[in-house]
Every structure is written in structure tokens, then in C-alpha cells.
Amino acid sequence: MTTSHSKTDSATTLDGPAAGTFPDGFMFGAATAAYQVEGAAREDGRGPSIWDTFSHTPGKVAGGDTGDVACDHYHRLEADLDLMAQLGLDSYRFSIAWPRIQPTGRGEVNQAGLDFYRRLADGLRQRGIRPLATLYHWDLPQSLQDAGGWGVRETAHAFADYAGIVGGALGDRIDAWTTLNEPWCSAFLGHGSGVHAPGVTDAVTALRAAHHLNLGHGLALQALRGSVPSGAEYSVSLNLHVVHPDRPDVAEDLDAVRRIDALGNRIFTGPMFAGAYPEDLLSDTAPLTDWSFVHDGDLADIHQPLETIGINYYSTSRVRQWDGTGQNNHSTGHNLSSASPWPGADSVQFLPQPAPHTAMGWNIEPSGLYELIMRMHRENPDKSLLITENGSAFDDTVTTADGQRRVHDPERTDYLRRHLEVVLQTIAEGADVRGYYAWSLLDNFEWAYGYSKRFGLVHVDYDTLERTPKDSGLWYAQVARARSLA
Known about the structure:
Layout: E1 27-31, H1 34-37, H2 50-55, H3 77-86, E2 91-95, H4 98-101, H5 111-126, E3 130-136, H6 142-146, H7 154-170, E4 176-181, H8 183-191, H9 203-225, E5 233-238, E6 243-245, H10 251-274, H11 279-284, H12 298-302, E7 308-312, E8 317-321, E9 348-351, H13 366-379, E10 384-390, E11 398-401, E12 404-407, H14 410-428, E13 433-439, E14 458-460, E15 467-469, H15 471-482
Parallel strand pairs: 1-2, 1-13, 2-3, 3-4, 4-5, 5-7, 6-8, 7-10, 10-13
Antiparallel strand pairs: 8-9, 11-12, 14-15
Helix pairs in contact: 7-9, 8-9, 9-10, 13-14, 14-15
């Protein structure tokens, strides 16, 4: 086989894989998010984000945990970069903390913040690891939230300004960019059920936030293309929902799937990839809003050229039409709340999924990743695909033998293997999948779950911050170097 790129080139051309072997050019990576790993929350000019505020609000995060220190990645950058090289990563997906660049979300730029990400990008490239930078992974500057946050369109324009600043400052060393991470969570967990920052529980605000996130995505792409050297690649990372009907032969359950698909998937893929919101989405939510917050020209701004779709996948959902008895379960595994993250779909009930489950209570179903990849391949044949998040939380235990710390986590190794097998299958069937990013590099602050859930390839002792590669991380390193599951 031949390849037309190195780890740090922007072009990514793949040849067909042999059995059990990944194509030349396929990227094995790992991912993190700024608030979950960096710490240094009040250092070097960083301003507060909505997650600082949310995590410091009693009762919002398990154990009263915050991201003030997290994994202290900000101070342990060089050691963590060496750890990535030890794990054989081709690429590292990280997010840039908006309040570290613009402490209030507007105006003056914090040079110390830009310098940190320069050091990160340079350190990656020196080790042959390609940087993939995400502009927004949920840490909106608190000052922007005080002015209305994603519920107002001005935030989308502020996001575009921020994108232009970051692209101009870092575009000479970063040639792969993601605009948003999981805008569904930002809109509907943040503004619908309220289990994520900023903790709003208002259906109309959630829909407004979804639109303004879409608008911010499109405006940011335009700003990046105006500030980053040509040849860069652009993507968005979506946590697309795989939804199955409880009773495949019952029309009401099929309609429940349609409603969740509209609110969970097509509310983003429609305007981003086709330039329009789905008519059934507008109809379903008409009792709530007339969508007058969509202005003339918005859809054209959202529908920008995009090279790559990032797929974040963890589990599937099973739904049915609620019969109206008892309390309806709106949960998709992101904490139960009295408020629903599904505006316009109150009649849909989410049902428990059969075992096996991860420590998050999420079912393990690799076939769901197959469904997502093949769907995106069919619907967007002009775009390449990246698995930008996939991983599992388990209750890991550190053991010591002969003075060596070890974490035996066979369940996570099996999870990774089975999902990578699916990726290979989809490539063999013609899907243009360019890479896989394990979530996550490090155990970290797991949002509303605090430090109670561990997803990392690397164990972090939260008392000492010592890093210990887990057996799954060592296995992943072998796969990345061999480029094969054989």
C-alpha cells in the first residue's frame, strides 16, 4: 500500500485495507476537552466559563467536584505529550478554551492563552502527532452567558470573532479544525433538561440555542477559512443518536423514532449539510415556537462547505409511544431530570436497554456505530468521516506488583476492539473513515458526574495526579503501531 501523507500533512488519502489491517493514512488518536483536563482555571488570564459557574453551584455536580484542577494538564503538558507519543498516537483531538483566549468572550485577546495552545500544537508536531483542534467543547465564557448565551444570536457572532482570532494565531501549525463538539448536548442538556451548564430548563430556549449553535458553526467556518492558510480540513463533531423502535411493527413507535431523529440528528445535519431544517421538526415543535429566531440568510450562513463529519458514538436508544401512565422517562443516560431534553417529543418514552452496560449505564452495542457510519456515508458521500469520540467508563482498580502500577481493564479493551472491528467493516464496505479517536486520553472531570466515572486510556490518581497507562491503553498503542487488529 502507499500513502500520500505523513502524520502532519493535511491531505489524507486512504488505500483499501487488507483483512484486519487499517488503511495507510488512517489516524489512531485520542481526545480530551479543555475544561475536563486542563485545570489552571484562574491562572494566566483565563476567565470563568459556564462550567466553572455550574460546577461551583451546590448540587449540580456529583461530589461537589469542579474542574479547577482536573488533570492539571496545563502544568503537565510536556509529560502528557510524551505520554501520547508513548501510546503511539497519530493524532490528538483537544479543545481550545474560549475563556482562556478571550476571558469575557469578546474583545481583548489573552496572549498567555494563545501561547499555551502554541506550545501544545508545536509539541504535538515535534512528536509526529497531528493536532485536531476543537473550537468549542461547552465552556462558554460566563460573561456571554450573562448576556443571554446561546439563547441569543449575538453569541454566534462572538464565536465567529473568536474563531478568526484563533485561526489567525494558530493556523500556521494546526491544519485540522472542528467547530463544535456535540451541539445537541450544549442545546438540550444545557437548556432543556438543565443537567449540563448553564442549567437552563426551557424548551424554547433549547431550540433557540440549537439554531444559534448551528449559526455559530457556519460563521466560524467562514472566519476560519479567512484566517487559516489554505489546505486545512474542517469538521464538526456530532453525537448522532441511534434510535430503535420498541415495537417495529407499531406505527406510533416508528413515529417516536422519527421525532427523536429530528430533534437529535436532523436538527443539525439538515441545516449544516442540506441548508434547511426538516419540515417535520418544524411541525413537531410548532406548538412551542414559530422559529422566528431563524433570520433571512441564516441557513446560507450555516450551510458551509465541510470536508469531514465527526461522529461521536457511545450507545443506542430504544423508544416507544408513551401510554400516559406513570412518570415518563426522558433519559438518554445523561442523568434523570424532571425536565425533558426533547422539546416537542413529550410523548416519547425511552426504555432501558439490555446488558451489557458500561459504568455510565450505557448499553454496549457496536452495531450502532456501524449504523451511524453507513448512514452518514450514504447521506453525505462527498464527505470523509472521523470517529471523533468512542469509549467506555468502567470502575478501574490500580494494582501494584514488583513496584509497577497496573490497571487491568479487559472490558475496555474488548469495547475498543469490537468498535474498531466495526470501523474496519465499514471501510471495507466503502465508507471513507479516516480515523478513530478514543475517548479519552486521560481519566478526567466527567461533567455532571464529576470524577466518579473513568473513560481514560490512562488512569489518573486524583490525589497525586500520577498517570498510569491502563492495559487498554497499552493494547491501543500496539494496534496503532501495527495498524492491525490481527
